[in-house]
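Usage

Read records sequentially. Each one opens with the input sequence:
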Amino acid sequence: MKDNIWDKLTRVVLVLLLAAAVLGMALWYRPVVAANERMRQDKLELDAKIQKETEVAKKLDSQLRALKDPKTIERLARERLSYAKPGENVVHFDPAPTNSAVR
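and closes with the structure output:
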């Protein structure tokens, strides 16, 4: 049995309708996919910021724990404030001059 022209046209129309439906769905969901990609990028940036801030928090926590130690406080006072124990002499060294004026 041969297919007549109407059967062929019906198949072509159905294929075209199916293609149009697929294309319509792709165009309909394109903004959703773009928003999803934007949110994924934002999440990666936020994860990087969280990791950086976690490292900063660890450093600050270790500094805080160090400041609870009396020996650390004494060392910092000696270095930064030039404190000395009775009978000790404090010697200061000036930093080397920089050669900013090149001739």
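Summary fields computed downstream for this record:
- The radius of gyration is 37 Å.
- The chain has a mean pLDDT of 88.
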